[in-house]
Design brief:
Bound molecules: heme C
Largest sheet: 2 strands, parallel
Radius of gyration: 19 Å
Number of helices: 5
Strand order of the largest sheet: 1-2
Number of strands: 4
């Protein structure tokens, strides 16, 4: 309940916040979700995380987006970042992606929009490792430790506490760099115009009417997940029991 009130209050603040002139749509709903890394101690009712585990940068948006006050010309790519995002590129080429004899579109490297997700979920980089820090954030507030999203029991890992005893288990969110057991990503969608008969045609250039979204005609993490909408379990774009049949005919 505390979380709800905080969320409503913070939403008001958000209305004033436009990232690079984009419209905010339902962006505010990220507040209070698993991807909101601000005020975690308060929300969780513990004094354990920020300033120890990771830096509370004061804005939940900047863990992914370039702080708007940096202006349109701020280029994260110049600093080794993922173009357009406030995160560094994970070591590309290091992923093992799903493959099988029947898979038509074989991909070696995930696209930038999926590397955004993997920059935390592969567990190789700290959650608070952003390219730009927001104006006004003081380096004296920098965390003592910069932990990574993985289940290991060491001082580099959220799993130190998030082991299912001291705090909820985090290992299942850690995809690792071995993605061979995960749904394939970054391949061109097989159901486009000259489609594969096993796949439905999308409803439009950006995907399906139920919200399942294609990026440059490709399937990415954000095809199935919308980090901005916590209404459906696991941030899915449509309920799990309808998700697969959006694309797969059998
Ligand atoms: C965990 C990473 C992450 C965080 C944190 C995050 N976003 Fe996003 N944001 C995304 C992704 C991914 C997209 C692209 C979504 C798409 O294409 O559908 C996006 C898109 C947007 C857009 C473009 C419009 C749209 O809906 O496509 C706006 C505006 C936006 N975010 C605002 C915000 C604001 C404001 C916050 C902080 C309250 C925030 N975001 C926090 C990942 C994030
Ligand atoms: C800045 C780091 C970061 C980025 C970037 C990020 N995530 Fe996460 N994500 C997390 C953390 C941390 C959790 C929650 C771990 C926990 O407490 O269980 C999480 C949780 C999730 C969950 C589970 C939500 C739930 O309700 O249990 C999904 C699904 C997810 N992320 C998908 C994505 C996708 C898709 C993207 C890219 C668009 C993305 N994440 C980008 C850090 C990140
Ligand atoms: C020093 C111990 C400790 C460390 C390290 C730690 N956490 Fe936590 N975290 C907790 C405790 C305790 C809770 C509250 C109990 C729970 O949610 O399981 C919590 C809760 C959370 C929550 C839920 C907040 C909410 O709104 O309910 C998230 C998300 C989270 N932690 C993410 C992380 C991430 C990501 C890392 C690593 C970057 C991390 N934590 C590292 C102790 C820790
Ligand atoms: C084809 C759709 C699809 C794609 C693409 C996809 N996911 Fe998922 N994801 C799901 C579904 C469905 C679930 C829940 C069932 C499960 O765990 O398999 C899920 C679960 C998750 C979870 C939560 C695990 C848990 O049980 O708490 C995380 C984190 C996550 N996905 C992140 C990602 C990331 C990061 C990517 C890109 C590398 C990605 N997903 C690509 C459909 C997808
Ligand atoms: C956005 C569309 C989309 C959604 C949603 C989707 N898939 Fe897929 N899936 C694809 C595409 C495209 C391929 C790769 C086809 C190819 O290139 O051969 C694929 C491949 C696969 C494969 C590998 C097939 C092979 O030949 O090795 C499996 C298994 C699979 N999907 C299962 C699922 C499941 C289970 C779900 C629901 C959780 C799901 N998919 C949701 C588009 C989708």
């Amino acid at each position: 309940m505390i979380r709800r009130r905080g969320q409503a209050a913070a939403k008001g603040v958000l209305c004033a916040l436009l990232l690079g002139g984009m419209t905010v749509a339902d962006a505010g709903t990220i507040l209070g979700t698993k991807h909101d890394f601000t005020g975690l101690n308060q929300r969780a009712g513990v004094v354990a995380m920020s300033t120890v585990a990771f830096s509370d940068l004061g804005s939940s948006c900047v863990y992914c987006h370039i702080p708007p006050e940096k202006g349109e010309e701020a280029d994260s790519a110049e600093l080794g970042g993922n173009p357009g995002w406030n995160r560094y590129l994970p070591a590309t080429g290091a992923y093992d992606l799903y493959d099988s004899p029947t898979l038509d579109n074989k991909v070696k490297t995930p696209s930038p929009i999926s590397l955004l997700c993997l920059s935390c979920h592969d567990g190789t980089m700290a959650v608070d490792m952003t390219v730009f820090k927001p104006n006004g954030w003081r380096s004296s507030e920098d965390a003592a430790l910069h932990l990574r999203l993985n289940g290991a029991d060491d001082l580099m890992s959220c799993g130190k506490c998030h082991d299912g005893r001291a705090a909820h288990k985090i290992a299942i969110k850690h995809l690792d760099t071995d993605l061979t057991n995960d749904h394939p990503i970054s391949m061109t969608y097989a159901g486009l115009t000259h489609g594969d008969p096993d796949f439905r045609r999308p409803d439009g250039p950006y995907g399906f009417d139920n919200g399942v979204k294609l990026y440059d005609q490709k399937v990415e993490c954000a095809t199935c997940h919308n980090v901005h909408n916590p209404d459906i379990t696991l941030l899915l774009r449509t309920r799990a029991d309808h998700l697969c049949e959006t694309c797969h005919i059998k």
